[in-house]
Write a structure and sequence with these properties.
Blueprint: E1 18-21, E2 27-31, E3 41-47, E4 52-55, E5 60-69, E6 73-78, E7 90-94, E8 99-104, E9 113-121, E10 124-135, E11 149-150, H1 167-175, H2 181-188, H3 193-211, E12 215-228, E13 231-240, E14 247-251, E15 254-255, E16 268-273, E17 276-282, E18 290-296, E19 299-306, E20 313-315, E21 320-323, E22 327-334, E23 342-345, E24 348-349, E25 356-360, E26 366-371, E27 380-386, E28 389-398, E29 415-417, H4 423-494, H5 499-535, H6 540-560, H7 562-578, E30 640-642, E31 647-650, E32 655-661, E33 669-672, E34 675-677, E35 684-689, E36 692-697, E37 706-712, E38 715-724, H8 731-738, E39 741-744, E40 749-754, E41 762-767, E42 770-771, E43 778-783, E44 786-791, E45 800-808, E46 811-822, E47 829-837, E48 842-847, E49 859-866, E50 873-879, E51 883-886, E52 894-903, E53 906-907, E54 911-912, E55 916-917, E56 931-935, E57 940-943, E58 957-964, E59 971-972, E60 984-987, E61 995-1004, E62 1007-1008, E63 1018-1019, E64 1031-1038, E65 1043-1048, E66 1062-1069, E67 1076-1077, E68 1087-1090, E69 1098-1107, E70 1110-1111, E71 1115-1116, E72 1121-1122, ...
Parallel strand pairs: 4-10, 21-28, 22-29, 31-38, 39-46, 74-81, 91-98
Antiparallel strand pairs: 1-2, 2-10, 3-5, 5-8, 6-9, 7-8, 9-10, 10-11, 12-13, 13-17, 14-15, 14-18, 16-17, 18-19, 20-22, 22-26, 23-24, 23-27, 25-26, 27-28, 30-32, 32-36, 33-34, 33-37, 35-36, 37-38, 40-44, 41-42, 41-45, 43-44, 45-46, 47-48, 48-51, 49-50, 49-52, 52-53, 52-54, 52-55, 56-57, 57-60, ...
Length: 1429
């Protein structure tokens, strides 16, 4: 299994930094300094390299794009090996696309590795990893290659310690439910549950901290399951803090692309509905199994394990035809045992309910789906899903045509469906097949293990042989060196050299001799290894490699004895100097290499004792004897061939722990919770049978729960005994309880059961599957260890199954018995069947009672009454057969009978029969009108139905009569003395071309009864040919519930097809296989309207022509029809819909949209591109839709978009809704003079500035000379304004207002501002004043200009006027005064008249006019405003 590697690049030693994750998943950024200079940034990846799997010999390319200021440098490194070869690794940079690439031409398996890309500048570095997988191309025999695919996907296979858990398993546990922990731990071999839970809690806290950066809310995690045929999906509810956060999908640690459209060709796609995310895998295959992981911006949020069992269907489900109110069964057999499979109807999963019953056989191979009480709506395609395999079949429900019209059909007790094959036999065969395959697999595994052990033994033998050869070579080398040293030393001394020179000569000679011996030994070892490799059939390269490996092993072994050899040489030289005796040197003989062979890994090196025998005899050397090559191997010791296993024990029962050692001679010790168990421990027995050790607990109690351990020869095995105390019954109690309880009507019954089990327990009593609750007639008493139910006033209807279910934390148990309530039988049933009603006897039959009251019918009690009398005569007791023959009758009299049934429990109520007449002429009633079966020129065949009233006797036959059309005379067809015995007759007494009608009368003992109504007229001629197909069948109109058709009459062709006399219209729903006839009787018109259709349902339509020759071939429409009006593309009908709305916070607002569309469209409301929240109420009606925000908040501001789409197209419309309120006033206002004669006004921002992006400010001024406030600046979007033309000596005060779309706030006033003025004395000489008259009529100095403004923008108009006295100014639009209209901001300051329109729309177009008048005159000025889109 591949695992997604999480690489964290450690900062170099001494290089501090701040580590953080990039927005690009898998990129780690290290920032060297805490605060970056303005405009500078650390490196980052905008496009990181993508993992690559490529065939050997192809070109591999990794591409990356990086950003950062200053521009970062890019470097590549690999985990294993260097990248110095420019032929294999080529770094390139494309300045036009800013791409950094690493190219590896003719990639090989040696380049398969994990690569890192570094982007570095002076402020930090960014690192990401990428994986290269190489598929090796086999040459020659594929068996020579170990693997085709070399996987190095960033997954460094590290040696795990015992009990260490893989990271993918932790991800799986973090996303799993608690109830699945045990299954996952068992599956992945986790035994330390406590440690697992502790670490899991720590990981959960870490994951929650990571997820909190990107996720607001995460719930409803559902694991991956096969939901429908050929598709699997998993779901989760996810609310992101940033909707633009990216979501990634991984399978086994490898990122996989996915689509957001279900109809895409991609196999993986994501569907988002609000906060619900559904990931789906289509076109399933076995390769889709694995661990799926969902990440948000590199943070794991969910993992799920998808397992695909290798299962298939041995027997598939088959089509079932069931009658209405009948049960239907689908059956299938799987190839492997499965606890359950998935059943679906029209891709909707089914579960156990009152409608569906899903069962599995004990061997888990036979699976059944039972559809209870089938109705027509249950018809459809049912599918069985097992793994990724599926099989489907139809369920066809046939309506009960015999049932009374308008009445509910009675429930049927029969079942339809079920495979005709013996499924149990097939399941047994499949089980045997599975066992056989398992045995074969086990045998193959044992064989492979034996081959593996043989290969290991062979390898050990070769290693021992190599070691022996190395030791022999070392010994020979040492011996040769010793001899050479001794000879050289002797020769040097003979030449008169000093001791030092002689010793040096001896050492040199020894080295030369050792080298020669080493070379000979290496050559022999190489030849031996190459010969063995050649025998194994290896290639020349592999033969050479085997020889080189043998030589290397020899050199390594020889080096162990190098030190000893040198010491020996020195010792020889020294000995030769001081210890020569009569010309003989003393030689030290013995092994010069270590005398131990390593056995198993846990065995210590064995020590080989060496003995020395010292002999100082004249003429002989002192010799050290011992083995040159030891042949002893340390025994690895005792080990477990079968360890202890955890077990669950039941209180009061026995439990046993068993383990098996490899040796039968070894003894061991048992422990419980760390304390030793001995043979004298109460309640336990320790036994040993050969290598098998057993610990038996005779009677389990709670104190025996704990951890048990067995130790032997330093080895140990552990297991846990969990003591459970589920509810259970004694076998005798079950047998006594199961005996049916029989009582009489209105009596009481009690059921009592004793049980054992740990409290608390839940006891439930059921009667016929319905749980009993205490009431006036039912009392339930439950105490510790037993429970009792008492039922009072029982009736016959209470007969049924009584079940008790007991449950506690360890399990559930139930037992069933039966209750039989005896009562008197119900009355016998009619109608009376008259066998004979002659002049001397009346014989009749009736039906037995519906319910015999629990006892067989003993006999019937009969009474007879002669019609017209008031007395009843007792006939007596009749045997249990429901039949009686009354011979005591008078001819012509009518009789009535009362019948009662009697059992040991009593007599039933009476059944009174209808009147029966004895011996008088009672003629039968008329049969049904004869029906023409076939008509030819010489024969007409008819049939009829017998009369319901037979006259009290059996029918003897029928008389058939015929009459020509236009005649009043009926003629008998059959001879009078030969009545027709059957209900069918062929009349051959006809004339070709004549038209006849027929009638029939029934005959009994009394004679012929009344004739039937005449049949239809029929011609005595050969049958006509059926008509042909209708012509030009088309749809003329359609609605949601009806469809209008028209067609042309089919053509006549003599001898081929005759004229059509009528037509039938038939429709078939797309999900059904049967055609339904719309008109019961044939129509003669060539048009028809089908009514009662389901809205938007899909139908097939055809028309069948009809005549006397039968029905012709049907003519179908070329395509299916949808029950809907003619298609209309969605279109909005309201042309005055607002594109901008301002709403006061706290108020409710609604927005209506009217449209037309057919078929009925899907309406979707979005806010800023995502579905609207649940606070917004959406109301859809025919032809319109509306959203309602009940109490608007500022967060509701945004662009609301409605999407109306159907199969024809779609239409959208957007409107901006701004929720705001009157802004809060600005803060403290401060004044400052930076430049003479100017004042800078600054103020603290309003509290609403951060929440309202349309908020701005207005500044007003007042000085001591005028004392009136006037605006000096408006539409200020910062918090500072400089006011010019400040006069010294005047006192100024300023106000600041906050304004938005809703209005303006209260003012914030500044302190008074005064610039003192230095006054100088001056003399004012006033000239003589002249009287001047300044009065004048109004006159425009600056007229209005033409304006063209964009839609939605503001428009500002101004003009200048003078006059004395000050003229009154009035604004008009299309001659309508605007001075009182609050939608226009109008000012008049010192003759400058201005008007501001905040948001211009088409409604503001027109002619604008300004009129100024005073007592002296009037002036006008006009302009036009044009609004463009």
């Amino acid at each position: 299994m591949w695992k997604k590697s999480k690489v964290t690049d450690q900062t170099a030693t001494g290089q501090g930094g701040i580590k953080r994750r990039s927005k690009v998943p898998g990129v780690m950024i290290t920032q060297y300094i805490e605060e970056l200079p303005e405009g500078k940034s650390t490196p980052d990846f905008t496009r990181k390299p993508i993992a690559l799997t490529i065939q050997e010999g192809k070109l591999a390319i990794f591409k990356a794009i990086v950003i950062g200021d200053p521009k970062p440098t890019v470097a590549w490194k690999r985990a294993k090996g260097e990248m110095n070869d420019p032929q294999k690794f080529q770094n390139k940079y494309d300045p036009t696309s800013n791409e950094h690439t690493l190219e590896m031409p003719k990639v090989s398996g040696d380049e398969a590795d994990t690569y890192k890309c570094y982007a570095i500048n002076e402020y930090g570095k960014a690192v990401c990893t990428v994986v290269l997988n190489v598929i090796e191309v086999p040459v020659g025999d594929p068996a020579e290659f170990r693997k085709k695919l070399r996987k190095s996907a960033g997954k460094k296979v590290e040696d795990k310690k015992d009990g260490e858990i893989d990271e993918a398993v932790w991800d799986l546990l973090l996303s799993a439910d608690k109830k699945d922990y045990e299954r996952i731990c068992a599956e992945y071999g986790i035994t330390d549950f406590r440690g697992m839970l502790k670490k899991l809690n720590e990981l959960k806290r870490e994951r929650e901290e990571e997820q909190a950066q990107f996720i607001q809310h995460l719930t409803n995690l559902k694991p991956i399951e096969v939901k429908s045929e050929n598709a699997a999906s998993f779901e989760l509810d996810l609310e992101l803090k940033d909707p633009s956060s990216r979501i990634f999908l991984y399978k086994d640690g490898v990122m996989i692309p996915y689509s957001k459209e279900g109809d895409s060709d991609m196999r993986h796609y994501l569907k988002q509905v609000g906060k619900r995310y559904v990931f789906t895998v289509k076109n399933l295959s076995p390769d889709d199994a694995g661990i799926y992981q969902v990440d948000v911006e590199g943070v794991n949020i969910f993992s799920t394990d998808f397992k695909i069992p290798p299962v298939d269907f041995v027997v598939k489900i088959e089509e079932v035809k069931a009658e209405e109110r009948q049960d239907a069964i689908f059956e299938c057999v799987t190839s492997l045992p499965m606890n359950q499979i998935v059943w679906t109807l029209k891709n909707s999963p089914l579960s156990n309910s009152d409608k569906y019953e899903i069962t599995v056989s004990d061997d888990k191979l036979i699976h059944r789906l039972k559809i209870i009480d089938c109705m027509p709506v249950d018809a459809g395609i049912y599918t069985a899903l097992a793994g990724i395999k599926s099989c489907s079949a139809w369920l066809v429900v046939e309506a009960d045509k015999q049932g009374a019209k308008g009445k509910k059909v009675a429930r049927k007790t029969t079942q339809a469906g079920g495979s005709g094959a013996d499924l149990s036999k097939i399941a047994v065969e499949q089980q045997e097949k599975n066992k056989k395959e398992m045995a074969e697999a086990l045998e193959a595994a044992k064989k492979a293990q034996a081959e593996k052990e043989a290969a290991a033994a062979k390898a050990r033998a070769e290693a021992e042989a190599t070691l022996a050869a190395a030791q022999a070579a070392a010994a020979a080398q040492a011996m040769a060196a010793a001899k050479a040293a001794e000879a050289a030393f002797a020769a040097a001394k003979a030449k008169g050299m000093s001791d030092e020179d002689a010793t040096a000569a001896a050492v040199a000679a020894a080295a030369a001799a050792a080298a020669e011996a080493q070379a000979k030994a290496e050559e022999e070892v190489r030849k031996l290894a190459e010969a063995k490799a050649r025998e194994a059939g290896l290639s020349p390269e592999e033969i050479a490699a085997a020889g080189a490996a043998a030589v290397a092993a020899l050199r390594q072994a020889v080096q162990l004895g190098a030190g000893e050899s040198n010491r020996e040489v020195a010792q020889v030289a020294k000995t030769g100097q001081t210890g020569q005796t009569e010309g003989h040197a003393r030689v030290k003989q013995g092994p010069v290499v270590l005398d131990t062979v390593i056995g198993e890994s846990n065995c210590e090196a064995a020590r080989v004792e060496q003995t020395e025998q010292t002999e100082q005899t004249e003429g002989h050397a002192r010799v050290r004897q011992g083995p040159l090559v030891p042949d002893t191997v340390i025994d690895p010791g005792v080990h477990f061939s079968a360890g202890l296993e955890d077990c669950k024990a039941i209180v009061g029962e026995a439990a046993e722990l068993v383990c098996k050692l490899s040796s039968a001679d070894c003894k061991g010790v048992w422990y419980r919770d760390g304390q030793e168990i001995t043979g004298s421990t109460e309640g336990m027995t320790i036994s040993k049978e050969g290598p098998t050790h057993k610990l038996k607990i005779h009677k389990v109690t709670d104190e025996f729960a704990g951890k048990y351990k067995f130790e032997a020869d330093g080895r140990k095995t552990e297991a846990v005994i969990v003591v459970e105390d589920p509810p259970r019954f004694d076998a005798k109690e079950i047998e006594a309880f199961a005996t049916p309880t029989v009582i009489k009507n209105n009596q009481r019954a009690s059921f009592k059961i004793s049980y054992i089990g740990r409290e608390p327990t839940k006891v439930q009593w059921y009667k016929e599957g319905e749980e009993l609750t205490p009431d006036i007639n039912c009392r339930i008493d439950t105490e510790e260890g037993h429970s009792c139910v008492r039922l009072n006033k029982l009736q016959r209807k209470d007969t049924g199954e009584i079940k008790v279910k007991i449950k506690n934390e360890f399990g559930t148990v139930e037992v069933v018995t039966n209750l039989v309530v005896l009562d008197k039988p119900t009355p016998p049933l009619g109608p009376l069947e008259i066998v004979e009603a002659s002049s001397n006897c009346v014989e009749f039959k009736w039906r037995p009672p519906k319910d015999d009251g629990g006892c067989p019918i003993a006999h019937y009690i009969l009474e007879r009454n002669q019609v017209g009398r008031n007395t009843w005569k007792k006939i007596g007791l009749i045997p249990s057969e429901a039949h009686y023959k009354d011979t005591d009758v008078d001819h012509g009299k009518r009789y009535c009978y009362r019948i009662r049934a009697e059992t040991p429990e009593g007599v039933s109520d009476v059944y009174e029969t209808e009147d029966v007449q004895a011996g008088t002429r009672a003629y039968p009633g008329p049969p049904s009108a004869p029906k023409v079966i076939s008509a030819f020129k010489d024969c007409i065949t008819l049939s009829w139905v017998p009369p319901t009233n037979t006259g009290g006797t059996n029918l003897l036959g029928y008389n058939l009569e015929k009459r020509k059309k236009g005649s009043n005379l009926w003629g008998l067809i059959n001879p009078p003395e030969e009545p027709i015995r059957t209900k069918k007759y062929e009349c051959r007494d006809v004339v070709e071309g004549m038209e006849y009608e027929f009638r029939v009368s029934a005959i009994n003992i009394s004679g012929a009864g009344e004739p039937s109504t005449p049949s239809e007229f029929v011609f005595a001629r050969d049958p006509k040919k059926p008509p042909g197909k209708v012509i030009d069948l088309k749809v003329t109109d359609s609605t949601y519930t009806s469809l209008s058709l028209s067609w042309t009459k089919p053509k006549e062709e003599e001898g081929v097809q005759d004229e059509a006399k009528g037509y039938f219209v038939e429709i078939r729903p797309a999900e059904s296989t049967e055609w339904d006839r719309c008109n019961t009787n044939a129509i003669i018109m060539t048009f028809y309207t089908v009514k009662g259709m389901k809205s938007m349902a899909m139908y097939w339509v055809r028309v069948v022509a009809f005549n006397e020759g039968g029905e012709g071939e049907p003519q179908e429409l070329n395509n299916y029809i949808l029950a809907m009006p003619p298609p209309v593309r969605p279109r909005f009908t309201d042309s005055k819909m607002k594109s901008f709305m301002v709403v006061r916070a706290g108020n409710s607002t609604r927005f209506n949209v009217n449209f037309v569309a057919s078929p009925w469209p899907e309406v979707i409301w979005l806010k800023d591109g995502v579905p609207v929240s649940k606070r917004v109420t959406i109301s859809n009606a025919e032809g319109g839709s509306q959203i309602l925000i009940p109490s608007a908040e500022r967060s509701d501001s945004g662009i609301y978009t409605i999407i109306v789409k159907n199969i024809v197209g779609q239409e959208t419309f957007s409107t901006e809704i701004r929720v705001t309120d009157e802004p809060k006033p600005p803060g403290l206002v401060e004044l400052d003079e930076n430049v003479p004669r100017t004042v800078t006004v600054s103020w603290e921002a309003s509290q609403d500035e951060k929440r309202d992006d349309h908020l701005y400010y207005m500044v007003m001024k007042r000085d001591s000379s005028k004392r009136t406030w006037h605006t000096v600046a408006d539409h200020i979007f910062n918090n500072r304004f400089t006011v010019c033309n400040i006069m010294p000596g005047r006192e100024y005060q300023f106000r600041v207002y906050a304004k938005n779309d809703m209005g303006q706030s209260a003012p914030s006033e500044s302190q008074k501002w005064l610039i003192s003025e230095k006054k100088e004395k001056f003399t004012l000489v006033l000239p003589e004043s002249k009287t001047c008259n300044l009065e004048r009529p109004p006159k425009f100095l600056v007229p209005l200009k033409l304006h063209t403004a964009p839609d939605g923008y503001e428009c500002y108009m101004s003009c200048a006027v003078r006059g004395d006295p000050t003229p009154h100014v009035t604004w008009y639009r299309n001659n309508i005064s605007l001075n009182t209209n609050t939608n226009y901001y109008i000012t008049n300051t010192c003759g400058v008249c201005s008007m501001l329109i905040l948001r211009v729309g088409p409604k503001d177009m027109g002619e604008y006019k300004v009129v100024a008048d005073n007592q002296l005159g009037r002036a006008e000025c006009s302009t036009k405003l044009t609004v463009r889109e």
